[in-house]
Design a protein that fits this description.
The chain has helices at residues 3-8, 11-42, 45-73, 75-98, 104-127, 138-167, 178-198, 209-213, 216-228, 231-261, 266-290, 298-313, 322-350, 356-368, 371-382, 387-408. It is mainly alpha-helical. The protein has a single domain (8-199, 217-416), classed as Growth Hormone, Chain: A (Up-down Bundle). α5 (104-127) packs across α14.
């Protein structure tokens, strides 16, 4: 039986994937509606950058502790609590917009709350699969879940753009922002449904007793020490964090500005994000077709992908039509999607299961921790220079960083993880009984 057939027959994986799909689809509405709401309330790119930073900094600070709690109490339990919290926060935000009571301080406070929740939901969500499926099925499960998320990145922005076009995106004032309020409502409902499906997932085993007795601070320290003493892992995390700092931070500000200044508003932003999602999905499909065909190995393939992505970022600042931006960002998505599954699987199979929550938290910390600060800086730079200069600078940085990593770091030696031999799955234990 193939891995995909085994996964289709596993009700545990089916519940997890269906809930993840619904939640990820709802999140796409908020990912577009929230920055757009801030822009409409302020009209200031610096305010948007500061807002992104205000949401990202607490997430970056707390995500390490989130990973420790995931290892201590189980991914399922932590993820369930965050779903309930996000439901309440999004419902309040939706009510404020629909009642025309939204203000920047209130939106910022709710965004801060969602940021805190994400500090725990991110390590919990990225740790669920290894606790849910047999080890030999992990690459196929990662590919399926990531492909599902990219489907939501394709369909979600398109549906959100249609919603904004029909119900209003706030361009004419809060009275015209019904579409934004409905977007937050849809996301709140998606968390309710995904919490129901998550309740039916039964993880393979509870957390080890030793991990449960260890203090949170000591647990975080053990995770950081594991990364620090593994030179290849340390280098990879630093490189990915540096690239995310510049490119990820820029895109959170530059894409909404591009849509606002040159294209056709929130619907154009939705099209750009949808094109990126379609590109990533196509890249994942290409990865599935090509298997482990690499340019020498995983590391060199990754660096080549980053270099090409940097070159494609440079002309983004010259875009004057939506279709131009969609072509460029879709191509960037194809390159990223091609390598994503292998990167996540490499991390998940490099560390012990008892350390997985902390390791994914550290990965997300270095991947996202500096990006919010970079977003604030990008918002400030956008007041001093053109979009063309911002995009070109980020593209050149990414290409040069990939070249330097190839020449002077162990990144070029990364190799795909060897798949474990098939073995009987361990007895399932409901994590909630821990």
């Amino acid at each position: 039986m193939s891995d995909k057939q085994a996964l289709r027959r596993d009700p545990n994986f089916t519940w997890l994937m269906s809930g993840g799909f619904i939640s990820a689809l709802g999140d796409q509405f908020t990912l577009i509606a929230l920055p757009w709401l801030v822009l409409q309330l302020t009209g200031d790119p610096l305010a948007l950058g500061v807002m992104v930073a205000a949401m990202g900094v607490p997430r970056a600070i707390l995500i390490l502790f989130g990973g420790a709690l995931v290892d201590r109490y189980s991914p399922k339990r932590v993820l369930m609590l965050t779903k309930h919290a996000n439901t309440v926060l999004l419902a309040i935000l939706a009510a404020l917009v629909l009642l025309e009571r939204a203000s920047l301080p209130l939106v910022a406070a709710l965004g801060f709350g969602m940021s805190v929740a994400s500090a725990f939901s991110i390590p919990a969500g990225t740790s669920m699969l290894p606790h849910t499926v047999a080890p030999q099925h992990l690459p196929a499960a990662n590919a399926t879940m990531m492909g599902m998320r990219q489907l939501t990145m394709l369909g979600g922005p398109l549906l959100a753009g249609l919603l904004f076009a029909l119900a209003g995106d706030g361009s004419a004032g809060q009275g015209d922002a019904q579409g934004l309020g409905l977007a937050f409502t849809i996301d709140a409902l998606s968390y309710i449904v995904s919490a129901w499906t998550l309740a039916r997932v039964k993880p393979l085993a509870a957390a080890p007793k030793s991990a449960q007795k260890e203090s949170v601070f000591r647990s975080v320290g053990a995770g950081l020490a594991t990364v620090w003493h593994d030179r290849t892992l340390r280098t990879a995390f630093f490189y990915w964090g540096l690239c995310a700092c510049v490119v990820g931070g820029l895109m959170q500000v530059a894409l909404p500005l591009l849509a606002s200044e040159r294209l056709h508003g929130a619907s154009a932003l939705a099209l750009l994000m949808g094109a990126h999602g379609a590109g990533i999905l196509a890249g994942m499909a290409l990865s599935g077709v090509l298997g482990k065909r690499r340019i020498v190995n995983l590391g060199i393939t990754l660096l080549v992908v980053d270099g090409l992505s940097g070159l494609l970022l440079i002309p983004m600042g010259l875009v004057t039509q939506s279709w131009q931006g969609m072509l460029l960002i879709a191509a960037i998505g194809v390159l990223g999607g091609f390598i994503q599954v292998a990167v996540f699987t490499w991390i998940q199979q490099r560390v012990a299961p008892a350390m997985l929550g902390r390791m994914m938290a550290i990965f997300m910390f270095v991947f996202m921790g500096l990006a919010p600060l970079a977003a604030a800086a990008a918002g400030w730079l956008a007041t001093l220079m053109s979009l063309a200069t911002l995009f070109a600078g980020a593209g050149v940085f990414l290409a040069v960083a990939a070249l330097l990593a190839w020449l002077f770091t162990p990144m070029s030696t990364l190799a795909d993880a060897a798949l474990p031999a098939a073995r009987p799955a361990p007895a399932r234990a409901d994590a909630d009984a821990a």
